[in-house]
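Customer escalation, tier 2.

The customer says the design service returned an amino acid string that "doesn't look like it belongs to this structure." They asked us to rerun it and document both sides in this ticket. The original structure tokens are below, unchanged.
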């Protein structure tokens, strides 16, 4: 257990069956409980990434390791207790390469880089708009304008209770990374729904953005913004019928087949619906002519030579803000 002061005015860690933690009210003690490890696909991916980067560091040359160790001595971080410390060379190596992976740079940075100067944001605000009793858009404004010289990581919490004011660092999850940062649009609802699913009738979302230098992997200071809503949904906005394709998706061409289905708006609904296909088998992709679309777009399935023969059921999903519905599509992939 780590502590500061003779009376342990600040402490962190475990001693026997007692764990010292702290929050905004100060230090407190609790019984140690072994956490449940659900081992979700996201958790597994993160652990595999950290394991792979740790193995990559061990494979560096002695000169490269020395370079990272020397660079780490110039970097100052802050612990949970508010004290400062220097990371190890391995910790810095893993951190920089993890940041690069967040903006889709998968080439391992082996040589210690030069610490860059990363700009900050003077303003980051998020607001939502609604229609038909549903959140129809969540938009962001950035100042100054996004820089094309850096990548950017977009993170968010899940939809929390509408009265929530404090969001801990551990509750944020990465939604997407963009390189250059100008690829991040003002639309923050679409990546959120893709990560967490549709929104409840009431809630709060905290968003976070930070620049990442694509040359060094160093990340800038994150900035946060929240948006809150409380609505009364009007019920189903549109309906989808069971969908089909006309024939078999033949592999090796590649082959295409259009999906046939019925889209029925309810009442006066005329919003632009975002369309997607989930559960596609390996080697099969979807092409959507207009997305989002206030009418019914042309959706075509494409089978490559890598597609595995068999019968599958995928889902055609229509999303309007926080309203979502789907219908199954039976497809056959064959020779």
């Amino acid at each position: 257990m780590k502590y500061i002061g003779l009376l342990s005015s600040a402490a962190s860690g475990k001693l026997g069956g007692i764990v010292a933690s702290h929050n905004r009210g100060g230090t407190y003690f609790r019984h140690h409980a072994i956490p449940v490890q659900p081992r979700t696909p996201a958790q597994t991916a993160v652990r595999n990434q950290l394991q792979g980067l740790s193995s990559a560091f061990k494979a560096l040359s002695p000169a490269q390791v020395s370079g990272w160790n020397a660079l780490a001595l110039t970097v100052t971080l802050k612990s949970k207790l508010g004290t400062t410390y220097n990371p190890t060379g391995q910790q810095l190596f893993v951190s920089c390469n993890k940041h690069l992976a967040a903006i889709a740079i998968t080439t391992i940075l082996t040589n210690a880089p030069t610490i860059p100067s990363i700009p900050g944001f003077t303003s980051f605000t998020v607001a939502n708009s609604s229609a038909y009793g549903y959140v129809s858009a969540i938009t962001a404004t950035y100042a100054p304008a996004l820089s094309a010289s850096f990548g950017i990581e977009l993170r968010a919490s899940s939809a929390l209770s509408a009265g929530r004011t404090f969001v801990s660092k551990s509750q944020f999850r990465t939604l997407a990374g963009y390189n250059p940062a100008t690829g991040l649009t003002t639309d923050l609802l679409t990546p959120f729904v893709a990560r967490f699913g549709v929104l409840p009738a009431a809630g709060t979302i905290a968003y976070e953005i930070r620049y990442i230098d694509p040359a060094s992997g160093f990340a800038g200071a994150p900035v946060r913004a929240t948006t809150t809503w409380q609505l009364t949904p009007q019920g189903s906005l549109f309906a989808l019928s069971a969908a089909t394709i006309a024939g078999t998706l033949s592999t090796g061409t590649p082959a295409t087949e259009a999906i046939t289905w019925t889209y029925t708006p309810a009442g006066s609904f005329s919003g632009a619906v975002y369309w997607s296909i989930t559960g596609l088998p390996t080697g099969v992709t979807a092409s959507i002519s207009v997305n989002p679309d206030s009418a019914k777009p042309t959706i075509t399935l494409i089978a490559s030579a890598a597609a595995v023969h068999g019968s599958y059921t995928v889902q055609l999903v229509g999303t309007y803000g926080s309203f979502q519905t789907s219908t199954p599509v039976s497809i056959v992939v064959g020779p």
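Tier 2 assessment: The sequence is consistent with the input. Confidence is low (pLDDT under 50) at residues 3-8. The chain has three domains: 2-93, 123-230, 238-334. Sent an explanation to the customer and offered a walkthrough call.
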